[in-house]
Amino acid sequence: QVQLVESGGGLVQPGGSLRLSCAASGSIVSRNTMAWYRQAPGKQREFVAAITSGGSTNYMYSVKGRFTISRDNAKNTVSLEMNSLKPEDKTVYYCHKVVGGITYWGQGTQVTVSS
Length: 115
What we know:
single chain; mainly beta; four-stranded antiparallel β-sheet; 0% helix; seven-stranded mixed β-sheet; globular; 53% strand
């Protein structure tokens, strides 16, 4: 079955960078839209970034110019490069994909931005 596993989260200072990775099994990342979402305590899960099978990308306004989503087809992974991190970026980040009408989520990886 399809499984998504995130990694790369951790603690960084404001202005720092992190690179998250989503490893997919049971599905090829280049054949469907892949996305990243995030969810802070007490808030709804929100869309962060997506990349289509054709390579087009879309970002939530607050991360434009700071985050970059990309694919590595050889490794069957999707990454989220996060630069100029801000305290408000502190959340759990989730990898997301819809395959055959079924929504799949990773277990999440924690990103903490603090001085």
